[in-house]
Design goal:
The complex is a heterodimer of chains A (233) and B (230). With 233 residues, chain A is mostly helical. Chain A contains 10 helices and no strands. Chain A is 80% helix and 0% strand. The mean pLDDT of chain A is 89. Classes of the chains: A mainly alpha (233), B mainly alpha (230).
């Protein structure tokens, strides 16, 4: 083994800056995708529970299809394949506005929202039916009782599994390197090919990913311990 | 739409250049997934049991291993084995082998958690009764606890296998010629039908994963009938 470790190279100077830039892009990509995934996931979950059949079928097809295809393929589809299905003006707009990043956000959002929809659905199922019935009887519409009665209770139950979906999303955001988003993994890979010091670059970026996971899961454990108050019916 | 490209290359998607060249395509993906889940089962079982041990020198290494692997993106694990193997071993491993090792390492951490959840999900009375009948801790584990809990874990294993099947697509990045790579190859060669190609590939993955998911749901329903309670 004749490999000279050079930690300074990766932690300072140009390469250190690359790692930092990569981390910022990873956090931005995941942050934006988390917000959208949560929104879309909630909508899909509510669709699954409506009495209107076409919406229910759409939501079922959505969750089943996007959960059972690899994220990488979805990314390639949005990046390479969306050209011929989208209208020309949308394509032009996308190409002028950092299309790699947008395609990354779209695919991460859709992939994760399918998982989130299932989590939210199981959360809603955990709320007794009487809650919905009584809020409907009080004169709230279906949407109103969802927004004001069911969802607030359901979200409290599903916060831990939701957080683990968010963590998955952060880890999955590393796949965006394949379509050219310059996030953490991309930068580590780039340092490897520029300097042949892949060992250090991968160690540093792996440690960053692990510390994000550990910090967040520590916070979830604390939340479960001290703040999780579910109503016993 | 230009579906001819897809049909002309369909057998390439399925088995790669085989029998004239190396095996690839969907067959390679399935081989990677099967090899990965087989290896990951044994490694994961070992770490799962270590994780539950009362001895700290068994428990801590397993805990560290599980937490590190679960906190790392699979892509990173793949790069680790791809770029690290030459440094440690002095020779390069074939891409498929280093991808397979990465899959085994990555999936085993999740299997370890499944094993732990499965064993802890079994009623405590089972262990107590087994120990009370005079079996040692190891014997109780081997003959009473594991046979029951492993059976209960089968649906989770199937789900993990589905995840792994999807994850094999990442082997594309280090150049393993599996389904995703055949798709990008054909796409780069033709450049005319990316939409059609990626839809086809997505559907191929979907069929496999959906069928397996349904099997796992069915197993779950069947098994809930034969649970030891109390």
């Amino acid at each position: 083994m004749n490999y000279e470790f050079d930690w300074k190279l990766v932690l300072t100077g140009e390469y250190g800056q690359w790692i930092l830039d990569g981390l910022v892009v990873t956090l931005k990509l995941s942050g934006i995708s988390i917000v959208f995934a949560l929104l879309v996931g909630t909508i899909i979950a509510v669709f699954r529970l409506t009495k209107f059949k076409p919406l229910e079928w759409f939501a079922l097809a959505y969750t089943e299809f996007f959960r059972n295809t690899p994220l990488l393929i979805q990314m390639f589809f949005w990046y390479f394949g969306s050209y011929s299905v989208l209208p020309e003006s949308v394509n032009n707009w996308l190409y002028n506005h950092n299309f790699e990043f947008t395609a990354g956000v779209i695919s991460l959002t859709i992939y994760t929202s399918a998982f989130i929809a299932e989590e939210i659905r199981s959360g809603i199922f955990a709320i007794p039916k009487t809650q919905l019935e009584s809020s409907r009887a009080c004169g709230l519409s279906f949407i109103q009782s969802m927004v004001h009665v069911i969802l607030p209770q359901a979200f409290r139950i599903i916060i831990p599994p939701l957080i683990s979906q968010f963590l998955n999303l952060i880890k999955n955001s590393s796949l965006a390197m394949t379509i050219g988003v310059m996030e953490l993994t991309y930068m580590a890979r780039q340092i490897e090919s520029y300097s042949f010091h892949g060992f250090e670059a991968f160690t540093v970026s792996t440690l960053i990913y692990i510390s994000i996971s550990l910090i967040v899961s520590f916070m979830v454990t604390q939340y479960n311990k001290y703040f999780l108050r579910t109503i016993n019916y | 739409m230009n579906w001819d490209v897809v049909w002309n290359n369909f057998d390439y998607f399925l088995i790669g250049a085989y029998p004239d060249g190396p095996l690839g395509g969907l067959a390679m993906s399935i081989l990677l997934a099967l090899g990965g889940i087989f290896g990951a089962f044994w490694v994961g079982l070992l770490f799962g049991l270590m994780r539950m041990s009362k001895r700290w020198w068994l428990r801590w290494p397993a805990m560290v291993y599980i937490e590190i692997v679960r906190g790392t993106p699979l892509l990173m694990v793949i790069f680790w084995f791809y770029f690290l193997a030459p440094i440690l071993l002095g020779t390069t491993l074939p891409e498929a082998t280093s991808a397979l090792i990465a899959f085994i390492v990555f999936t085993s951490a999740y299997i370890a958690e499944i094993v732990r959840a499965g064993v802890q999900g079994l009623p405590k009375g089972q262990t107590e009764a087994a120990r009370g009948s005079g079996l040692s801790h190891c014997q109780a584990m081997l003959y009473v606890i594991l046979p029951q809990s492993l059976r209960n874990m089968i649906p989770s294993f199937v789900n993990q296998f589905v995840s792994l099947t999807k994850d094999t697509s990442l082997a594309y990045i280090i150049g393993v010629n599996e389904l995703t790579r055949t798709a990008t190859q054909v796409n780069n060669r033709t450049l005319t039908a990316p939409t059609e190609i990626f839809i086809t590939i997505a559907v191929m993955y979907f069929i496999i994963c959906y069928v397996l998911t349904e099997i796992s749901r069915k197993l779950e329903r069947q098994m809930s009938r034969y649970q030891a309670r109390g």
